[in-house]
């Protein structure tokens, strides 16, 4: 008998490694959750699979239907490969200044891609996806308002972190974009350990960090609940860039700028406590940024 798996069976159960070189506080341990080890290369595999599969189960969509979704990158890649496996068609709307690696990967997986003006940002992509949904009748998952997004992390990411830290986690740190990761993990961990500190990283005013956003009020994700985040750390673009490079050089962890922002925020937290176990999300892989100037 041949023992085999579907590629979607490989989503989740990502490694948790300890950072050995970037942390100087001897009373604190810092662990990195390597979400780039998911088959699509990012934490977004979890939400993409849960959103499509649950929509199919409920009958919201059926095989052969066309879906449309706005993305800044990682969610689009995850939706592109998972949609094909689950039998639905995917149209992705994304700002034109996204890295070539992202654009080519989505097309390689067979998704149709519509690029919007860089000046309009992800907000412009969201507006166009909404327009296509209304005018063409395409189904929109709407990751920003879809409870299946955060519930993916309540079902998988949170329990994995709790298991792999033996419940010793004291602080969880995540970049905030759609906020699905931090909402789901917070909900689970707070049920297990109410005093665990949930820390969100967001960019300082004017900082451009792919994957981390400070949303205008009109575009604030509907799944976001401020009460589930104990502390918000604002991170600068320079700090996020430098930490992404340090992670590669000092820890052997090759990841993008949002991961750098999350770890830079985790180090700020480590400076305020005498002891603790911090877990930070490394949301993707650095290969996705090689055509940018991140590692120059």
TrEMBL record:
Binding-site positions, pyridoxal 5'-phosphate: 74, 177-181, 258
Tryptophan synthase beta chain-like PALP domain segment(s): 7-284
Superkingdom of origin organism: Bacteria
Residues with N6-(pyridoxal phosphate)lysine modification: 44
Cited SUPFAM superfamilies: Tryptophan synthase beta subunit-like PLP-dependent enzymes (SSF53686)
CC cofactor: pyridoxal 5'-phosphate
CDD domains xrefs: CBS_like
A single BP term in Gene Ontology: cysteine biosynthetic process from serine
Pathway: Amino-acid biosynthesis; L-cysteine biosynthesis; L-cysteine from L-serine: step 2/2
Main EC class the enzyme belongs to: transferase
EC number: 2.5.1.47
Entry similarity comment: Belongs to the cysteine synthase/cystathionine beta-synthase family.
NCBIfam families for this protein: cysKM, cysM, PRK11761.1
Name used for this protein in its record: Cysteine synthase
Encoding gene, per UniProt annotation: cysM
């Amino acid at each position: 008998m041949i023992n085999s798996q579907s590629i979607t069976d490989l989503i989740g159960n990502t490694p948790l490694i300890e950072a050995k070189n970037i942390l100087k506080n001897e009373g604190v341990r810092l662990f990195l959750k390597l979400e780039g080890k998911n088959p699509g290369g990012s934490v977004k595999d979890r939400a993409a699979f849960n959103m499509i599969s649950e929509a199919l189960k409920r009958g919201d969509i059926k095989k052969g239907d066309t879906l449309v979704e706005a993305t800044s990158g990682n969610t689009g890649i995850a939706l592109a490969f998972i949609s094909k496996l689950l039998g639905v068609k995917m149209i992705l709307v994304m700002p034109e200044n996204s890295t070539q690696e992202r654009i080519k990967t989505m097309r390689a997986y067979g998704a149709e891609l519509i690029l919007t003006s860089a000046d309009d940002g992800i907000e412009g992509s969201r507006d166009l996806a909404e327009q296509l949904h209304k005018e063409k009748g395409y189904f929109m998952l709407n990751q920003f308002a879809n409870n299946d997004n955060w519930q993916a992390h309540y079902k998988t990411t949170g329990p994995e972190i709790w298991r792999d830290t033996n419940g010793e986690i004291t602080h969880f740190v995540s970049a905030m974009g759609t906020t699905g990761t931090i909402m789901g993990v917070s909900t689970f961990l707070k049920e297990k350990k109410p005093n665990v500190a949930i820390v969100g990283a967001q960019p300082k005013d004017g900082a451009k960090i792919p994957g981390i956003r400070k949303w205008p009020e009109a575009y604030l994700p509907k799944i976001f609940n401020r009460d589930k985040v104990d502390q918000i750390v604002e991170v600068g673009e320079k700090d996020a860039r430098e930490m992404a490079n340090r992670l590669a050089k000092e820890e052997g962890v090759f990841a993008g700028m949002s991961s750098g922002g999350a770890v830079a925020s985790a180090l700020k937290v480590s400076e305020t406590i005498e002891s603790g176990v911090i877990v930070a999300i490394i949301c993707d892989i650095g290969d996705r940024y090689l055509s940018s100037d991140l590692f120059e």
